[in-house]
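#struct-help
A.M.: can someone run this one for me? Single chain, 378 residues.
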Amino acid sequence: MTDLFTAPPHRQAEPAFPEPRSSRRAQRRRRRNRHGRSLVVLLVALVLVGGSGYAIWMNLDSLMGLTTPLESKDFPGPGGDQVNVEIPEGATGTVMGEELYEAGVVASVPAFTAAFEANPESVLIRPGTHTMLEEMSARDAVALLVKNETADLQLTIPEGYTVDQIVERAVQVTGLPAKDFEAALKRPAKIGLPKVAGGEAEGWLYPDTYMVKPNDKASGLLSQMVDRTTKLLRQKGVADADRQSVLIKASLVEREGMHAEDRRKMARAIQNRLDDDMALQIDAAVAYGADKPGTELTRDDLNNSKNRYNTYQHAGLPPGPIANPGADSIDAVLNPTPGDWKFWVTVNLDTGETKFAETQPEHEQYVQELRDWQAANG
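D.P.: on it. Structure tokens below:
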């Protein structure tokens, strides 16, 4: 049998670090391609030599003379051209090192992981697109990641925001034109809205913090929000046909309730009124349809039957959500507190203290408490 491996393949000497950066980038690409071809040849040869292949495989690195991320090399720094590196959600130090090595930021994964473990603040590194420098020292790379100066923007959407408020916030944070968001909202299928939404995004834009990358578009951001809502409803076992009504109820609870424990009671009171064919009489819904704050509602607003969201004049649920609810409000609708309540009123507008009643006379007592509080705090 011919001894195929008495001498390792020819290995080109590693360049000294001061060599021009562009030359080293090109050499890294050539080296990866060359090693890929050599590995294929070696694997075929191992099949041919049979049982002796195990010993050869165990000494593969020394036989091939490969330069891999397993070598604990480090660049002297300080670094050169900028390069964006995506750090995935939940990435370990090793995963980060692999991403940085592939991008040419660090010379080896072991050097980075050693620096990562030596820096107690490395646990603060957040996912996202980090702007790094090519050929940094591993220690400097960790220090720069810890600063979390990502190329991404953070877009935070509070619970209870309407679509209009979300677009306004998104335009302010991202700098994307409002017309781009408006155009995307007119194409509901493009942003993933299900048919049950009736072409309206209200209620389907999940309130959360989103990482906005430099090349993100308005339609992509809206798609993320719709996707989060859809996934949440699916995880909670809400049937497709029930999702719109769940979001309508949750939006009412979101805009009316300040405290988590109150929201579950409100969800029960809403369902109790629906079961008894009672008008919901929810001011937040009327205000949404009138396009004004709830504190500015007038008697004429409550008597306006042309307002489709006027739950004093129209029985049942309003035609759509009045805001974009968060997970707590959705949970409240899916798991309401048992009880016979049909009324509620916030008796202290500063603390949000809310009282629930089963009968009209009891409710009127609590309404008087609110009036007394308003008189004392006018």
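A.M.: thanks! Strands lie at 82-87, 128-133, 153-156, 209-212, 343-348, 353-357.
D.P.: also worth noting: Residues 1-23, 27-69 have pLDDT under 50 and may be disordered.
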